[in-house]
Amino acid sequence: MPKQTFLNLPRERQREIIDISLKEFSCHSFETSSMNKIITELEIAKGSFYRYFKSKKDLYFFLLDYAVNKKIDYLERHIDINGNNFFEIYRSVIFNYMKFDLTFPIISKFLRSAVDNRYIEPTKILNSLNGKTFIENLVINGQKQGEIKDFLSLDFVILCIINLSESMLNYINVKLGIEYKDLLKILEGKPHGYKNQLEDAFYQLMSVLETGLKPVKAN
After folding, report:
1. HTH tetR-type domain location, by residue (predicted)?
2. What's the predicted TM-score (pTM) here?
3. What is the CA radius of gyration of the chain?
4. E strand or H helix at 58, and its extent?
5. Residue 124 belongs to what domain range?
6. Tens-digit pLDDT profile for residues 147-170
7. In angstroms, how far is the first alpha carbon of the chain from the final one?
């Protein structure tokens, strides 16, 4: 965590240190990230920087907390959780995940790197929403409402949702060559040549989720 000397800095200088550090750690793993590059770009002496943070690891985990909280705050403000249907709420979750990535690309890249290097769990963001149990409550309520098979374990359902969502985005990028920016325009209802194909991809994802998670109705 930062030392008091960092917290005493003007907000603009704190932001500059955070932004430059995030940029370096988003492009490299923790091990290969260069503190010298960060310090040089900030135009301060190495000794001065370590008056703000004890070590490289200290800085990294401060940035991790900052990035996670930034995404949690954004999602809590934008996800529509007032719907009664699990799958409708899920659509809002995946849309706003993508919108955050487009709005804050460096933070998103940094978080992806942290997940890939196992500094945080893939479910940390979702698990931290709305009182630390957003995704768990979403699935539990879905099971209570009869929308999700009640014999499926919580961890298994969450893993399926996250992995299928990421696989779908990879599929869209490879199959259709659609960038995030264009993807968002389509989701917001703006005209685009790939609109039908994208809607079909989303339909397939929701179909797989609903078919796999919904209970089978007795005849």
Report:
1. 11-71
2. 0.70
3. 20
4. helix 56-78
5. 4-213
6. 888 888 888 887 787 777 777 777
7. 59
